[in-house]
Amino acid sequence: MPSFSLPPIIDNPDGGWGPSSSNLPEQFKFKDIPYAPYSKSDKLGRFADWNDLSTDNRQNVAGLPAAANARGGAPGRRRDGAQAFGSGTASAFAYFHVEDESSFSLVDNKATPARRGGGFSRGRGGARGGASYGARGAPRGGRGGGNQRGGNFNQRGGRRGWRDWDKNTRTRESSVVISPQWSVLEEIEFHRLSKLRLEVDEPEDVDSYGRLFAYDKTYDRITTKTERPLQLVDRIKYNTTTSDDPVIQQLASKNTATVYTTDVILSVLMCATRSVNPWDIVIVREGNSLFFDKRDGGPFDTVTVNENAADPPQDPAPPNPNNPTEKVPEVPSINTATSLSLEATYINQNFGFQSVIESPPPPAVDLAHPNPFYGPDETEPLASCGYRYRVFDLGITEDEDIKLCVRTEVDAYMPGGNPREGQGLVTIRALNEFDPRSQGAGGAPDWRTKLDSQRGAVVATEMKNNSCKLAKWAVQSVLAGADAMKIGYISRANPRDNTRHVILSTASMRPSDFAGQLGVSLANGWGIVRSVTDICMKMPEGKYVLVKDPNKPVIRLYAVPADTFMAEDEEGEGSEDEEA
């Protein structure tokens, strides 16, 4: 019988588990073995990992092609995509069977036939591990077919949108050139702004200026079958910035408020979390007063189009200076972002001029004071416009004295109302349709076929594509204390001609109700205004610029030199003098 001997048992005199270091035999000591670092995330319980074959030792395992591993992942990669700590030293423990490899020779050199059970079959009866596809390319659901939610899928199972490869991924440019002399003081993300809240009471009316005409109610009865052409009306309407307003200068000399601004600038700040396009606000602190200004020719002088659409209109990329042979289109497209913005601005102005009654009855109503911007040398007639200067109390406690004076605008009054007492005031805006089939249309339906029968679908699409613009209009109407808001639906007479337009319909709503439908929180807007005010009041006297990042949901506050933008203003005044 074969003999059996027990292995030697090494007792630990210290009473612990296992042998002690003093009496450990030499064969149990780790001598001449290199050290390999490791981390706790390493998987140490595998005898063989066919999914983690190195590039040099990749073999044709079990007849599978070398480009794919047993689990469908990329060769030479971990499942989590991260390289294990110390994996580069694992070759120190590798066993290389050189002699076995040198004696190996391949006998059968025929190509391995493709397995019918793998991949995707095109027929009805796909294999159990695959998935069959219908006429539209959507998987019908093999038992092991992976992700089967429909839509377009890439090779790894991730979902892709329609023509993702064809989308223009060019980044937007900032609305103002950031100079190296500017220093960043604050950077606030939109998710932080969305958490701010401040309840503000009803404002105090300080004064009113301008002249208002009555709104023409016949525009409320326009349908797609009784459309009217949009006319070019020659009128003057001013969009003066805060610091150049003579009324605000008088109020500031009397210390009427702490912050002075206009409803256009204030609405952008209150709806900042909805904005996608870049913008900038110039903030000047003089003593204990803050002035929120806009730049001439900046983003506040035009109207955006489909800013919040999934695929908004874009401007063409600038020509490459390193490629002189690149062809530049002689005639720019009428559906670019800049062209559509100018077209929308033109439509808004002329629709507001056209939809009022200038010849009595009913007569025009003069407010407490005449238009403060209309000089004696002006010869063109004024547009229907009324300015209401109102003061809002932003104080949280009774001891705080932080007030905001804002210049608000109204466009007309309803017949029978009393605009001098703030009754029956109306704001007039316009949405425009350019070409439903062009890039940037945002999936908008054809207004001529859907506006009368399916107005809800049209309104829902506009709320999605123009969320920021509609929110700003609603906030401006609420700030002005308007009782009604008129929105016209205006389309091109020909989709290829951006000079002729027709009025298809006009909608009427209450500003507060419309803001509720859009999900606009005035308390959140006032919280944003109060936070920006507190940040600026902590800074010393000087000039600052609040800039919305063109590609990120972030706003930044810069400290700028006092002469910033002064050269642009002087150049503009000089060109105006030359033209005169």
TrEMBL record:
Superkingdom of origin organism: Eukaryota
The entry's keywords: Cytoplasm, Initiation factor, Protein biosynthesis, RNA-binding
Biased composition (Pro residues): 313-322
One Pfam family of this chain: eIF-3_zeta
InterPro entries linked: eIF3d
Subcellular localization, as worded in the UniProt entry: Cytoplasm
Bias (Gly residues) ranges: 116-132, 139-149
Region of interest (Disordered), residue spans: 1-23, 115-167, 302-329
Region (RNA gate): 299-313
Record remark on domains: The RNA gate region regulates mRNA cap recognition to prevent promiscuous mRNA-binding before assembly of eif3d into the full eukaryotic translation initiation factor 3 (eIF-3) complex.
Purpose: mRNA cap-binding component of the eukaryotic translation initiation factor 3 (eIF-3) complex, which is involved in protein synthesis of a specialized repertoire of mRNAs and, together with other initiation factors, stimulates binding of mRNA and methionyl-tRNAi to the 40S ribosome. The eIF-3 complex specifically targets and initiates translation of a subset of mRNAs involved in cell proliferation. In the eIF-3 complex, eif3d specifically recognizes and binds the 7-methylguanosine cap of a subset of mRNAs.
Protein family: Belongs to the eIF-3 subunit D family.
Quaternary structure note: Component of the eukaryotic translation initiation factor 3 (eIF-3) complex.
Protein name in UniProt: Eukaryotic translation initiation factor 3 subunit D
